[in-house]
Amino acid sequence: MPLTVPAGSTVTAVIDGHSSTNGAPIPDSATVALTSSDPTIATVPASVAVPAGGSQELTVPVTLTGTAGSSAIAVVVTVGAQTFQASDDLTVTAVVAALDHVTLTLTQG
Predict the structure, then answer these.
(1) Greatest distance between any 2 Cα atoms in the chain
(2) Is 24 in contact with 54 (CB distance < 8 Å)?
(3) Structural domain includes residue 107
(4) pLDDT tens across 36-78, in order?
(5) Most CB contacts within 10 A, which of 15, 16, 41, 98?
(6) pLDDT tens digits along 77-100
(7) Burial level of 75, CB count in 10 A (0-12/13-18/19+)?
(8) Under DSSP, is residue 55 helix (H, G, I), strand (E, B) or coil?
(9) For residue 66, what is the domain's CATH number?
């Protein structure tokens, strides 16, 4: 699902992988590679390790550079001779200086 966030936001990539047959997780022998189509917008670690025993979900930080624009974040999980791929689109919008709150104080007198 595409995500649009303002510059300065915190973004996390969640890699979900399991067997639809028996629920087996991403095995710890898998290699997990990540890429950003535009590293001037967002960067990701080149790879992530799968913990011992495997995992159905891996969480990876996405670092925003502060520049507005779009980037596709992609993952390739390789297990033996099988390769699984997924990607999602990220759009970062510029932060525009504007009014962001108002307060009211009542006083006697």
Answers:
(1) 80
(2) yes
(3) no
(4) 999 999 999 999 999 999 999 999 999 999 999 999 999 999 9
(5) 41
(6) 999 999 999 999 999 999 877 877
(7) buried
(8) strand
(9) 2.60.40.10
